[in-house]
Design brief:
Length: about 375
Amino acid sequence: MAGHGNHVQRDRAPTAALFTPLKLAELTLRNRLAVAPMTRVSATSEGNPAQRMSDYYAAFAEGGFGLVITEGLYTDKAYSQGYLFQPGLSDEAQGDGWRPIVERVHGHGARMIAQLMHAGALSQGSIYRKDTRGPSAVRPKGQQMAFYRGTGEYPMPVAMSRGEISEAVGGFAKAACLAKESGFDGVEIHGANGYLLDQFLTEGINLRDDRYGGDIEARLRLIAEVAQAVRDAVGPQFVVGVRISQGKVNDFVHKWSGSEDEAARIFGLVGRLPIDYLHTTEFEAWRPAFGAGASLAALAKKHVAIPVLANGSLHDPEQAAGLIESSEADFISLGRGALTHPDWPRRVTAGASLEAFDPGILSPIADLENADKHRAGIVPVAS
């Protein structure tokens, strides 16, 4: 993309691949464009969706996206909440709050999927617990994220007991049921970006010597158990996806130590789970995953028989379309591009100009109130 303030005029012809329908199990998407999950910490303190969130999500559907994926929703009232003012899907009140939002998205012709997230050791704000849990007592790298109201180092987590692991699995299953009851078209299990399920997968973070630690298959066991529990809870017709990444919000440059061989094992195992799509995310989705060779999305495509959703700096329409045309992905998700232009699909269809992402909408707090003030030219004050 050009620098901020510049405009790019585009012709739709090179981007036609983005605008064909796609089947996800029994669900038909009107195009190959999804809104990526983006934490906006704009719910009530109790985790219920706020009115501003309804307008936020509806704008993407009205703007032409075929699929809208929510920000990560915490799944239980034990240790899953990651951020203050994060929305949840842990009780009926929270589920009821999502119903009118889903209806608005549907009313504009889009589908909506709830991303289910357990923060694990990366939790930096919870109304339910003051301490954190992870696979092992290993302090997460890096610093808590200030734009999600965090300060200083992450706390040292307590290694999860078998009972707490079972509780977490049950939380995902219950949240998936609430999503289905609330009218969502599916759920995405957040196994990426350094959160709990990714913590179990990651060497050096998971030091367990029980059935959840050791080789790749054991470290993937929790993801497998969650996927099976969710599928059992929602039945065969409801869409279930999984998100996978190498990089983490607290360790941006992390790579799997076994390179493409490890990717093949991970995707081979995940591809056999009872899921309907796989969501891969990298900083730049088209780049080689390991310095040379195939992208992470392309490696996933090679080893799974389900649609692959690619995420990572794909706000250039021709680059996004190229990933589909080269069979490296089946559809793509946009984060910064969608924040910049909620009507990104309609703009691309019309050949309209696109602007670069303005990081000011996420600073000092990455919530919707700050974004509104920034766009209105009001200087925000950190809260």
